[in-house]
Each structure stands twice: as structure tokens, then as C-alpha cells.
Amino acid sequence: MSDETVSELHDLVERIRRGDADAPRALLDRACGRLRKLAAHIFNASFPALAGRHEVDSIVHETWLRLAQAMESVQPESVEHFFHLAAQKVRQVLLDMIDRQRRLRGVVGFSAAADDVDAMGGQTHDPARLALWAEFHERVAGLRDDERAVFEMHYYLDLPQADVAELLELHPRKVSRLWVAATERLADAVPGLGGVGCP
Q1: In the chain, what are the domain boundaries?
Q2: Does the N-terminal or the C-terminal CB of the chain have fewer CB atoms within 10 Å?
């Protein structure tokens, strides 16, 4: 993000804190493009069979709605807090998506098609594979606070590490170390995925 974009986000959060009724919608609209980019990245990397434009847009829409609902009762204290909230909602949508796919497989009983192979060589609709992805996203919540903040912003929100460093007011090398620590911890916790890819 440019300095202008970061400044704009800070201004919108400050407007929310001052009680500006239009500011939450403006902040959500400003984040929508990043949420769409994020959804496309994760689906293409992990769930290519579900990565059609309709699916991406529907997940972005669901995330947007959950954020809007959350912001009716939770006022973001900072841009960092807003991104943390956004990352939580992205993760919840992904976990719900995996859960719906599990139930669909159980009801319909279909076999994964040959083109449903994900980037790491597993079957997108394979229940064991979906369970691994569900565990991965759930494990993110158990990371140390500083590691989770970096991981959520860089992985879920696709923010460059330089932007993460600026938003968290950390040295870029510290952000890099926290990213490595988080990905190593997740890779150890869910070895079946073969490691965590960088956006």
C-alpha cells in the first residue's frame, strides 16, 4: 500500500472513532478490493476447483457482510485492529466453506474429478485434504499474538511485509522473523500440507 492509502485508512478509522456514520461503509468498501485479491489467491493456490469468479465473489461478499455485521458492535481501534478483524472473518468464511464442502460430499457422495487436483498434489474435495486445510486455518488462531498478527496480514490479507511492518510499527526484519516463526510453527502442526506457501 502507498503512504497515501495507509493515511486514508488511518483517517477512516479516526472518523469511525469520532462517530462518523458513513466511515464504516467507506472503510469496508476500501478493503473490498484486497479481500477479492486475497480470495482469488487462496482459491487458486489451495482450492482451484472452487476458484471460479462466482465463488471468489461470493466468498468476498460473505466476508464483507460478516465484517459489516461485526463493525456494528466492534469499533476498530486502529488500522491494525481492523485488519485483524478482517483476517478473522476471512478465516471463518474459509472454515465454513470447507465445512459445507464436507457436508456436500457426505450427502452427494461424489468422487473428486481429475481436474480437482490442488497445487500440492492432493484432491481438492478429498475429505482428508479438506480436514488438513481446516486444521491449518484453525491453528492460525493458536499462534502467538505477534506471530498471528503478521501471519494474518501477510497471508490472509496479502499485504506486503513492508506494509505489515508499517501498520504494526515493527522493523521489517522483525516482521520477517515473525513470519518465518509462524509458518514453521504451522508447518510443524499440519505437516500433511507440506509447508505454508507465501502469498
Answers
A1: 3-193
A2: C
Q: What is the pTM of this model?
A: 0.70
- The pLDDT tens digits for 70-105 are 998 988 989 889 988 888 888 888 788 777 766 766
Task: Tell me, letter by letter, the H, E, C secondary structure of the chain.
Answer: CCHHHHHHHHHHHHHHHCCCCCHHHHHHHHHHHHHHHHHHHHHHHHCHHHCCHHHHHHHHHHHHHHHHHHCCCCCCCCHHHHHHHHHHHHHHHHHHHHHHHHHHHHHHCCCCCCCCECCCCCECCCHHHHHHHHHHHHHHCCCCHHHHHHHHHHHHCCCCHHHHHHHHCCCHHHHHHHHHHHHHHHHHHCHHHCCCCCC
Grid coordinates given for 72? 456494528
